[in-house]
Amino acid sequence: AAAIRFDRVAKRYPAGTRTADAPAAVDDLSLEVHAHEVLVLVGPSGCGKSTTLRMVNRLIEPTSGRVLLDGEDVARADPVELRRRIGYVIQNVGLFPHRTVAQNVATVPRLLGWDRTRTRARVAELLDLVGLPPDRYARRYPHELSGGERQRVGVARALATDPPVLLMDEPFGAVDPVGRRHLQDEFVRIQREVGTTVMLVTHDIDEAVRLADRVAVLSTGAHLEQVAPPLEIVAR
Ligand code: ADP
Ligand code: ADP
């Protein structure tokens, strides 16, 4: 697993932001994510959480500052290499609708030119890991799955090359509350097994408490208010 460091990172979009008094989406953020830990970013909608996450895998380039992966500036990393090293899971998963579950999970291995035997074995292993037995699920299409099952496929796909880092943006947001609780428990189990470094964005405090080793609380402009161990919610 790898450590991530944000070193005085800022992102200003040309159009500014929704909040008039906050010209930058991310403003002078310094933050460390330790190897193997689950760091959860919380904060109000529009405060810059997704922008922060997407600067790690270079979907967004910072305006200033640096993002370091194991000490190396990601701006200098090869984009294909970054894809292999960083898994990415988003709310509506973005599965390819005309590809089967197995084909979706095999996306990055194929991109990297793995041979059939290796890919097949890895796909089967991942589907078992996320609780979708391959004999029942490999040949289904995304529309033949429940929301929670689709989310599991998204996680399996993100884990295909055993990436040291996993970025998750509201990963369980589209799942009903009961299914979400189940997925969160599964996530904790999988995370213990694979030991990936995880950065996860949510607006659900309850989810943050359940999943996080540490919680980073952000305000507008992705200003870091505090990093704390998750607090127990005693009343809601
Ligand atoms: P969060 O994930 O906390 O909801 P975002 O990172 O999505 O916040 O957005 C932070 C701010 O940047 C918001 O004001 C949003 O409108 C703005 N923003 C996000 N993406 C873009 C974009 N591609 N172009 C312009 N402004 C954007
Ligand atoms: P293709 O797209 O080449 O016709 P398939 O649809 O059969 O191939 O499978 C896509 C990928 O998923 C391949 O890498 C294959 O090895 C893998 N795969 C297909 N079915 C299974 C299965 N039941 N268990 C594990 N992996 C599978």
Automatic annotation (TrEMBL):
Residues 4-236 form the ABC transporter domain. Coiled coil: none annotated. Keywords: ATP-binding, CBS domain, Nucleotide-binding, Transport. One of its GO terms (molecular function) is ATP binding. Its EC number is 7.6.2.9. Belongs to the ABC transporter superfamily. This is ABC-type quaternary amine transporter. The chain holds residues 20 to 255 of 358 of the full protein.
